[in-house]
Amino acid sequence: MPDLPTITDARIADLLDRVPRSSFVDGGFLGGTPSLPVTDPATGRALVEVVDADAAAVGTKALDAAVAAQDAWARTLPRDRSDILRRAYELCHERADDLALAMTLEMGKPLAEAYGEVTYGAEFLRWFSEQAVRLPGGFRQAPSADQAILTVARPVGPVLAITPWNFPLSMGTRKIGPALAAGCAVVLKPASSTPLTSLLLMQVLADAGVPAGVVNCVVTSDSKGLSSTLLADPRLRKVSFTGSTPVGRTLLAQASEHVLRTSMELGGNAPFLVLPSADIDTAVAAAMPAKFRNNGEACTAANRFYVHASVAEQFTKALVEKASALQVGPGIDPSTTLGPLLDEGAVAKVEELVADAVERGARVLTGGRRPSAEELPDGCAEGTYYLPTVLGDVPADARVNREEIFGPVAPVIVLDDVDAMIAAANDTEFGLMSYVTGADLAEVTAAAQRIESGMVAVNLGVASDAAAPFGGIKESGLGREGAAEGLDEYLETTYVRLPL
Ligand SMILES: NC(=O)c1ccc[n+]([C@@H]2O[C@H](COP(=O)([O-])OP(=O)(O)OC[C@H]3O[C@@H](n4cnc5c(N)ncnc54)[C@H](O)[C@@H]3O)[C@@H](O)[C@H]2O)c1
Ligand SMILES: O=CCCC(=O)O
């Protein structure tokens, strides 16, 4: 990680002056009058306004462009698609300062983490540039005849990619990378609260040589209008969604009309297990990013800590110590390690969940409130901050055990039996991420295999990797992103039978 740059008002003004402010369709940014504010959660002030696209009209225009570009892109040599993706990866790194600052400004993550996301997000472009020239396919002899079975991978066709605000760059590249590698054209719809990073990504892709129409980006506050228009259009062949489970459910229902391929990366409720054999330093070192990375606003965030009674006191004490040492402030300040939450609604939800837990008997061990204006740097009083929080004695019926907190709150539940810890971990409709910490390999492996989730991190707080299949089971989603599995989501298999 390079030293973080000093962010001055002039630097922010320069970026905001250059960042595109409207939808990107058929190779160009559209005109229009900006009216949709993008707010800085660190100060509560509007950064810029962007053009709020008419969902049906601009959505259809974007799909027209994607459909027109689809065949030629599918026929573009895999080597050429690979080279373009590779160039886009390089450009993301060359433009890391702009991309990172845009993310910190529009959603609040600390600048160091925003640079981390540039690396992570760009990696999907590099990984899939390498996969573009390794499309699957096969040739085998039919067992009962002198005939052959040939399988050929083909792109599914135009894709609608819908992304959330919490990882504005990587959630886009995790879809666009494999889609372009497979030969699919894309209409991206970013969250309306964080359009700037996606618009900068459009510039990256265009400058890398992605032809007009192959990637389009519709910025609109009317997400329902956009999805209902495009999902009703039979030319669209796939929807890839990252966001909350309720919205995913709606999109799955809409996608059934034209029997679309779907990929669903949905909500989580990750359990974090501290087993009897856990080394406390290792467990806490994993717990900190598992809980507080991205201000606690990650689908993978540890939502519930099930700690074995034999290590509970030591673990909780160490977690409280580390959590209370986090530096709350605006993401652009290099000393900040916990930035503001997205908006007032996000803080209100966290307050509500903490109040519910406390009413039911939980104890606030640190935090448990918003910081006062005096505890924040000048100019940040209107920002949407919440102190890093650890709750003890959290009862099983508290809402924090069931609902995604999406904020910097760690509920600790002490249990004296490993079976009970695993049963509690699995007592949720979600199954995205889980964390297991322990030094006894047999104990850890047994627990990891019994937890119902698409991903398990052992003695680690982050498992995300472009080379790994990311995704959930149960109501956390369908399909995988990243790795070879991530490319398969954008391919259809055609089977050809041949005489030998
Ligand atoms: N599994 C994953 O990989 C993953 C990654 C990041 C976030 N998430 C989840 O996303 C949620 C937080 O993100 P969010 O608040 O932006 O989620 P969200 O579901 O509210 O919104 C996600 C995206 O869907 C759009 N949207 C909302 N309603 C829509 C509709 N009816 N039709 C079409 N689009 C619609 C939004 O504008 C946004 O672009 C959390 O639940 C988090 O766990 C999951
Ligand atoms: O918010 C969920 C995505 C987090 C990640 O990809 O690491």
TrEMBL record:
A GO molecular function assigned to this protein is: succinate-semialdehyde dehydrogenase (NADP+) activity
Aldehyde dehydrogenase domain: from which residue to which, for each copy?
A: 35-496
InterPro entries assigned: Ald_DH/histidinol_DH, Ald_DH_C, Ald_DH_CS_CYS, Ald_DH_CS_GLU, Ald_DH_N, Aldehyde_DH_dom, Aldehyde_DH_Superfamily
Pfam families recorded for this chain?
Aldedh
The record, for Gene3D superfamilies, names:
Aldehyde Dehydrogenase, Chain A, domain 1 (3.40.605.10), Aldehyde Dehydrogenase, Chain A, domain 2 (3.40.309.10)
Q: Does the keyword Transferase apply?
A: no
Residues annotated as catalytic: 265
Q: What class of enzyme is it?
A: oxidoreductase
Q: Domain of life of the organism in this record?
A: Bacteria
Alphabetical keyword list? Oxidoreductase
- Official protein name in the record: Succinate-semialdehyde dehydrogenase/glutarate-semialdehyde dehydrogenase
